Structure formats: C-alpha cells, structure tokens
Amino acid sequence: MVQRIAVLGAGQMGAGIAQVAAAAGYDVVLRDVKQEFVDRGFASIRGSLEKLESKGKVPAGESARILSRIRGTLSPRDAADADLVVEAIVEDVAAKRELWRELDAACKREAIFASNTSSISITLLASATRRPERFVGMHFFNPVPVMKLVEVIRGEATDDATTKAVMDAAVRMGKTPVEVHDYPGFVSNRVLMPMINEAIFALQEGVAGRDEIDTVMKLGMNHPMGPLELADFIGLDTCLAILRVLHDGFGDPKYRPCPLLVRKVQAGHLGRKSGRGFYAWDEKGAQKP
Description:
Elements: E1 4-8, H1 12-23, E2 27-31, H2 35-54, H3 62-68, E3 70-73, E4 84-87, H4 93-106, E5 112-115, H5 122-126, E6 135-140, E7 149-154, H6 160-172, E8 176-181, H7 188-204, H8 210-220, H9 227-234, H10 236-250, H11 259-266
Parallel strand pairs: 1-2, 1-4, 2-3, 4-5, 5-6, 7-8
Antiparallel strand pairs: 6-7
Helix pairs in contact: 1-2, 7-9, 7-10
C-alpha cells in the first residue's frame, strides 16, 4: 500500500505532482539538485494553493496542512523509505536512466518506480533498474492540480500489482487513470504532437497566420486552446524532444519535426517558460497583447 511518495524534480510538473499527492494525504519528499529549484517548487505550490483557495476549491487553512506534508531535499537518498517514487526531471533518456540507477541502489526493494515521461520508452527506463516488474509510467498533464488525466503506461515487464497500485494512487489524488501500453508517445502525444507539428508547418508555409490557425482549431474543432498556443504552454523544447522520440521510435517521416520548430528552440524561444515562443509572455506567464 502506498503511504509515502518521493517526487524527483521540483519543476512545474514535479511541484504539481507533489501538491496533488500531499493534498490526497500522502507524506511527500520533493527533491531537486539545487536548493533554489526546491524553493521555486515550493513557491509554485504555494501560489497554486492560494489560487485554489481563493476560488473555494481548497478549504480555508487547508493549504498550510498540505504544505506541511511536503519535505524538500537535495539528496535522492531521502527517497529511500518511499513506497512510490515518481521521477519528473528533464525529458532526456540518459539523465533519467542515470537517476534511476542511483535510486535503484538507494530505495527499498519493494518500492514502485514511476516515470512522468511524456514519450520515452518505459521498458528502456526500467532496464536501468533491477526491478522492471515494479516500474511503470505515470504521465500527469499540465497543470497537474487541474488536469484530471493520468496515463499509466505498462512496460514490457510491468506486473499487474504495480499497475493497480499506481492506478489506485492516481484515483486517490483525484485523477482518472487510463492504462496504455509502451509505444513511442503513448496515446496522448502520439495523437497530439503531429497536430501541433502540422500547425507549425502550416505557419511556416504561410497557409495562415498564427492567430488564424489557432482560431480555426478553437472555433472549428472546439479546442479550448489553439495548437500554437498549446505548444507554448507545453514548451517548444519539450514538443521537439517528443517529436524526435516519435520519429526515431517509428522511423516514419510523418513525425519529422518542422524546421520552424527546430529554429525556435535553437533561438531559445521555448514558449511561456522563456517569455517568447509563438506568442509573447510576461514574467507571470500571462500572454502579452
């Protein structure tokens, strides 16, 4: 039974996962490599809870209790007693596998390992550990406190007990888990990223302007956000990384990243997090006119 959760990575996703886990009553360890990253993660959680409290979605005074269940750390060894370890670091295979090797040595044998990867093979990540049967994908969506879906991805060796334990934990966090199998991009990004990529191709080719492309998808397809604005929210570097996983994984040219996307990333125009992508964003993450 999962009682203690460790979250590795205190960025936007990791902080959100820590928040919903603590709100569900779990004791949480939130780890990153620098104290400033941990502090930034806690600031993000406080801001999110304050916003939810102001809207009446979190009872008055509950924010302090949620925060009290989260402990920050710089050492992955503080995950040693966790029943469930969730990794939410940069979308890089080598970095993830290195961290999982370290965690495999530090954590108790019965602990379940879950990666929040949005596209990388769970089977490949699990092979860096001695517990592939207890390794699973747990793909949350941004912003984590708001979005209900969690993709639960079974690797080649993931057993039924591990899958059930992670799905049960997701439900306790107020999420709707959907079980999928280990293919590049899983379901969500295998469907989403080609649409975003095609929107960028349409912009590059001059089929229509940025606002026109997003308006077509919002009003014509009833999407809450256009694909170019959504790409800015996800992060253009993340979109590019996922497309490269799809392209490499399937060997199909239909997943070839648009050159405009590549240039944007090379220029450091990563979207909302950098202040500039297809749109301009202020320091609070609001879109500039």
